[in-house]
């Protein structure tokens, strides 16, 4: 007789064992650096490249499928590699700076990017944050890379060949190479950049091999040359060897924005370690950082998505500093062109990252964010302004004055435990809030109008004026919060509190949406709330109406109360994804990404509306937040090459997922609060820098059990729709009772709603 019960129990045990084996991997094993690489200018599924790097490393490395100067350096659909590029690119739209490429090959001497290119397959590609390997089919070479923060080691496995080569392409726009055969070395520099650099900008590099060169050549553009040295528009070097089958050639490479000598110092990061040791150390470094958050009780794909997003959240802003011969922190200033002491970070746009990425650093990496704040103080002292988009220096892109949020949130959350020059940073905020900068994206464009009228007018030649007004008002709120914390004069405090209410000047009582307003006080007409751009930035009125992070209750009051506010939120999801692209003259990729997402006017692929699902908490309908946050996590994120629903944007879209998966989100940086959502996993453990832990338990969580039926905080029933940062960082245990049906009684009382300025006593 067959014992079906015994067989069933054995199968369950086997499944549990297989589950344990799968989930017993280390965090870095779940990361897929190819997430987001299946992108193109007309449709972004992330617009990322595989960053082979250390967390926040000064230099990244990436395989290069695109041509020289193409911001889409690596696209998943490509079938040829042109080289392996040291890159500092934050996004394809910002493009790169200080980049150069390395490519091994065999056979006749080929050095132009098309001639040296090789077919490859993802099937013969291994991609980890700390390691990359690929087989170059046309050359019968396996190339491997493993990095440190400022250096990297290459391992080339060659076939038997009389003519094996390595090309170092310093690219165009001004470069230099010198081959030093006795030292098995190539040195040089590249000046290639996309803006935001002083006139003396150079990235100096050094590359050292473990094998003597048989022959050497240089090149000038497409012209092959004899000789060991060349300085020109487009310089490059070729070193050649005779190799045996399976022969391994090691190359060490490092660079510096300061000097050749400093590049040599940076090369010492590799020490005497071999390739596998560097690789092992890199793996350990990533596991250390990724392991600060442990998730349990989810699907393998959810694990992969979570840790891939966490990886992207730990890349930017980039460390733009180095260590001198005495071990002291120094940096080349992308603002003044000088070499100066102290920290510097770059490659982040605050318009994107003030929302979730920087609050995430304040929660999990306050020590690092203290260094970032010191770097911002240095940026102000060296350039006279805080960068709103730095890459590496000031860039003229996006709107707002959101450095105020980044500075204020860091100090308000961690200023009592981390000492830095907040006085200089406060001075920088006041300067930026009251002056138009040297670029329209620095300081405040339209500041005189804003300070006089309370808004930037639609008809005075300043584009995206409504977006600027709304962001300036929020930024003024963060200055108000910081001014209170620093005990500034009451007159100054009250000024910024008053300005933070300027959002009301653009609220149209007829449509109950935000609308551009002319200098004479009349709303612009005709008004199409589905029109992208124009008065808004990469969005329309349905997206920007919710950009009142600091006073959602005030916005709800303007709309007619909480029920009317919630109904307006509902409409975002129920409206068809129609649009008016006439301002741009064509359908920009952000529009297309909203259209295809099938979530109405909710455009999660871009930043302005990403916080909006959390706003139901302010109207006493938290179950709708829970529904739409889980829908967004489930539908808009995957661990595949097309895994994002728009630009990933330097960790912001990833940090949204990381926070949301933990069950809360920083709707208003500059306050102490996180707004509740719905946890994704059955258990999440956050290990804080102070040694405390936040334990988030939801044992009956599942695909269907997405609603919060009840919550306890440190063993006590908790009805509020928000969590306190200061309470969490003391260590906390949150126990969620999850359900498949909404609890429409929990979190419905006004005393349970998150902070709004209008409710401030």
Automatic annotation (TrEMBL):
Gene3D superfamilies: 2.70.98.10, alpha-1,2-mannosidase, alpha-1,2-mannosidases domains, GH92 mannosidase domain
Pfam families associated with the record: Glyco_hydro_92, Glyco_hydro_92N
Subunit structure: Monomer.
GO MF: hydrolase activity
Region (Disordered): 739-761
Residue ranges of coiled coil: none
Cofactor: Ca(2+)
InterPro entries: 6-hairpin_glycosidase_sf (IPR008928), GH-type_carb-bd (IPR014718), GH92_a_mannosidase_put (IPR005887), GH92_N (IPR041371), Glyco_hydro_92 (IPR012939), PNGase (IPR050883)
Keywords from the named record: Calcium, Hydrolase, Signal
Glycosyl hydrolase family domain residues: 262-739
UniProt protein name: Glycoside hydrolase family 92 protein
Chain ranges of the Glycosyl hydrolase family 92 N-terminal domain: 30-256
Source superkingdom: Bacteria
Signal peptide region: 1-24
